Input
Amino acid sequence: MIAVISDIHSNAEALSAVLDAISSAEVDELYVLGDIVGYGADPDAVVTTVASIERATVLAGNHDLAATGRFDARWFNDHARAAIEWTASSMTAGTASTLAALEPRGQGACGLCVHGSVVDPAAEYVVNADDADASFASEDFERCFFGHTHLPTAFVRDAGGVVTGFALHDGQRFTIPEGHRAMLNPGSVGQPRDGDPRASYMLYEPSDASATVRRVAYDVPAAQAKIRAAGLPEILADRLAAGR
Ligand code: ZN
Output
């Protein structure tokens, strides 16, 4: 079994709830698909925790790249940019050097791992079947795990090249049909955007090609209080309660 997490966004409360939940599953390998920091108020704690996970494939997302001067924050909206500037100026040198060593693409035993898309691992959003089709066409992978959209989703491509997308809900087991290629997104740990404020993660079982998204409640008020105390934009605290 593989556990897949993404878009933690400096939310230590959400990460700890997810890691607690995963610890009861028999996980051989863990994929962390980037955006470890940004938006939230706990970059050092979250990066330290992620770096301590054994058997992990860890990627950088566009926020991690921006926090370490490798992605132009000019492309971010105002509150995202404010959070990156705060992160870059407040994180420790150790956090910065851990993030600086990460790339937005990697290879796990069960598939290709990217933050955004196969076409542009750092920044492209795979939201619909057309976006997924471009990634399927760009390389001959069988399985790809991706993040960035904060939406738990699956895209499958049949032998004839038809791509179909699915939204994945808590506890739903999605089995990739035989002979299909697939792109799987676990949703976001630290800033869900599908209207469900609970942290999201995915368990993938390679023996039967099944993916199950799970949602876990965490201490939202504690994460919000830290965001407000850090002086980060209010919207970054508010949206955690709405899951938007
Ligand atoms: Zn993100």
User: Anything to note?
Assistant: Residues 86 and 231 are 9 Å apart (CA to CA). The first strand starts at residue 2 and ends at 5. The chain has eight helices and twelve strands. The pocket of zinc ion is lined by residues 7, 9, 35, 61, 148, 150 (CB under 6 Å).
